[in-house]
Amino acid sequence: MADYNRPLPLPTPETRHFWEGTRDGELRLQRCTACKESYFPPRPFCPACGSRAVEVYKASGKATLYSYIVNHRPRPDFGTEPHSIAVVTLAEGPRMMTNIVDCPQTPEALTLDMPLEVTFEKASDEISLPKFRPAKG
Amino acid sequence: MKQKTIAVVGAAETTEMGKIPDTSQLMLHADAALNAMADAGLTAKDIDGIATAGDSPVEVAHYLGITPTWVDGTSVGGCSFMLHVRHAAAAINEGLCNTVLITHAESGRSRVGARRFSRDPASLSGQFEVPFGITSPPTMFTIPALRYMKQHGVTEEDLAHVAVVQREWAAMNPRASFRDPITVDDVLNSKMIAWPFRMLMCCLVTDGGGALILTSAERAKDFPQKPVYILGTGESCETPMISQMEDFTSSKAFRVSGKKAFGEAGIKHADVDHLMIYDAFAHLPVYGLEDLGFCDKGEGAAFIRGGHTRPGGRLPLNTNGGGLSYMHSGMYGMYALQESVRQMRGIAPAQVPNAKISIAHGVGGMFAASGTIVFSNEAP
After folding, report:
1. Considering the domain boundaries, does residue A10 fall inside one?
2. With an 8 Å Cβ cutoff, is A64 touching chain B?
3. Count of CB pairs separated by less than 8 Å, A with B
4. Which of B3, B116, B331, B378 is the most buried (most CB within 10 A)?
5. Which tens digits make up the pLDDT trace of B178-200?
6. Contact predicate B49/B302, CB 8 Å
7. What ipTM was predicted for this assembly?
8. What's the predicted TM-score (pTM) here?
């Protein structure tokens, strides 16, 4: 963490709950209380029906691997090449970008639709990034 | 739009292409514009509409000495010029202006006077994508492909075939950056960039530009070049975040834009003699063939592998060599349009015999936006 010099998110008023959640070890999504749609990225209204009646809730942290690449290009600020850059489908429906961690960064180890679970990588006192690892059990 | 009411009467690329370290990006705009004006027999005083993307149309208009009554700075990535054509057609038909200049230029390789890429860390992409290591198109545009490949049983060899076929076209084009034939093995042995993508499945990074001049079809007959008429146009956008595409096996923006353009043009797929699909990466022509309706879902790669898009095939595709082999300065849509115009004028280096209808289909951002233009060389 001390030498973390990668690009970090700068939360806005509409996304602060998400980043406060990851800092506290929770993956927080939003859903519409009118049409029940869960959605991501955060915004204070429902992108499906336009209602402003939405709520923040703690997601299960479970996901499956939707698609990915294994980046081989140099990233001196990461220093972990080759590494995966993935999009996962959360159990609640929305998709998000992440990295798959705690497993070899190879096509053999990273199979589409594999079950995953969230883990949080502390990048600064304010920011922890949601990463995903193969689900245990 | 009304069919064949608007025509391209001037079209040109920059004098040089590839590596142009002694010319700024702004001058590349001007070089392409001056060439297009010469092509049309016009000067800056004759231009009353201006459009460009990436850079400001104000900058380009002022540099060239143009005083416009219509300005379009729509900037949605590499397909912006398709959208400019569409908007210009509507503007001319509405009487907002008479003669529109659309320019693209980018010192993509030499970066002389080029803007720096930066993503605001407070933007949605800056918060929810950039922290995970995406930096540029090779690590973004490529992400959906694996899902497509799994769903349709498409292999790395299939993607390699796209690059091989486009190199066949490039070999016929003296201005293409890469002209030496390549094999599937060459592609699969080229440097790994972002698995499953290797170097030869990714577009070039070069310097260059292009410009188009449009006016009413009525006036077009008085210009020195054979007019190229616009039959139909389409545009759309989906998401600024690749992770938020509705479906990784199909682009909604492609489907909406393509359907609109076909509808306006009133043509069937069998009517199309020549096709350009913006190929930033090898999977894009595959998505394009399917989302435009030329192939059923999952059939695009087999269609290319089967030789249907190569020289002599029934649907000549990316006949300049494409972004993979011809050139790609950053916003390739302009070069797809230029090749469609050359094919309709009958002057392309790899000319498709008797081609009467050509489509140029562009992508903007990473499946973020799309624009489609249907051209014809037959007079109204």
Report:
1. no
2. no
3. 109
4. B331
5. 999 999 999 999 999 999 999 99
6. no
7. 0.96
8. 0.97
